[in-house]
Specification:
This protein has a 5-stranded antiparallel beta sheet, with no helix packed on it. It has a single domain, classed as SH3 type barrels. By secondary structure, it is mainly β. It is found in: Cytoplasm; Nucleus. This is Sm protein B. Belongs to the snRNP SmB/SmN family.
C-alpha cells in the first residue's frame, strides 16, 4: 500500500463516483484500489452524455444514458476524479439484495 493509502482505505465500501478522462462517470461501491489508482467497483452504473441529431430538424440534443455494469475494474490511468456518492450500506448483506439461488454445485438441503 502507498503511504497515503489511509484516506482511500477509509472509503472502502462507500458508494463512490469516478469521472473518467472521456467524460463518462462510473458510480458503484468501492471494493478495492491499488497504488496506480485502479479501482474495483461493485454494482457499477455507467453514466454518459450522448449527442443525438434529429434527422428532420437537424437540431442536436444532449441526453444522458445509463447502463448497469455490475462488478467493474477501472484502470487508474483513465480516472480523473473520485468523489463520495454515499455512505456504505448499513447492512452488508443488503447490498446484493436477496441471496442468489443455489447452482448445480451447491448441495440441496
Amino acid at each position: 500500500m502507498a503511504k497515503n493509502a489511509g484516506k482511500m482505505q477509509n472509503l472502502i465500501n462507500y458508494r463512490m463516483k469516478a469521472t473518467l478522462n472521456d467524460g463518462r462517470q462510473m458510480a458503484g461501491q468501492m471494493m478495492a484500489f491499488d497504488r496506480h489508482m485502479n479501482l474495483v467497483f461493485a454494482d457499477t452504473e455507467e453514466f454518459r452524455f450522448v449527442r443525438r441529431r434529429n434527422k428532420t430538424t437537424g437540431a442536436t440534443t444532449l441526453t444522458e444514458e445509463k447502463r448497469n455494469l455490475g462488478l467493474t475494474i477501472i484502470r487508474g490511468a483513465f480516472v480523473v476524479a473520485i468523489q463520495v456518492d454515499g455512505p456504505p450500506p448499513a447492512d452488508p448483506s443488503a447490498r446484493l439484495g436477496a441471496a442468489a439461488p443455489s447452482g448445480s454445485g451447491a448441495a440441496a438441503t
